[in-house]
Amino acid sequence: MCHRNPRKALTNACIRLGLPHVRIHDLRHFFATSCIEAGIDIPTVAKWLGHRDGGALAMKVYGHLRDEHSKEAARKLTF
Predict the structure, then answer these.
(1) What is the pLDDT of residues 20-44, one digit of tens each?
(2) Alpha-carbon span 36 to 17, nearest angstrom
(3) Which residues contact 39 (CB under 8 A, 6 or more apart)?
(4) How far is CA 12 from CA 3, 4, 9, 19, 31, in A?
(5) Which residue among 15, 29, 32, 39 is buried most deeply as judged by most CB within 10 Å?
(6) Separation of alpha carbons 27 and 14, rounded Å
(7) Which residues fall within 8 angstroms of residue 65, CB to CB, at 6 or more apart?
C-alpha cells in the first residue's frame, strides 16, 4: 500500500503494529540523539538535519546529551 501522506502512513503503521503514536518529528529527534550518543559531532548532525546555523540550535536542544555521554565515557577510565 502506497501513501502520499507520510504522517498518515506512520500513524497507520503504529496502529497496525500496536505501537504508541509516533510523529515524524519523534523519528528526527531519535536520529539526532542516536548520532550524538554515537559520538558524531553536533555541527555534522546539525548539517544532516538541514540546519544552517553551524549547530547552535542543535547544541541548545541536544547539548545535554553530550554531557551525559562524556560522563559515562569518563567512568570507564582507570588510573
Answers:
(1) 999 999 999 999 999 988 889 999 9
(2) 28
(3) 69
(4) 10, 13, 5, 10, 21
(5) 32
(6) 13
(7) 33, 36, 37
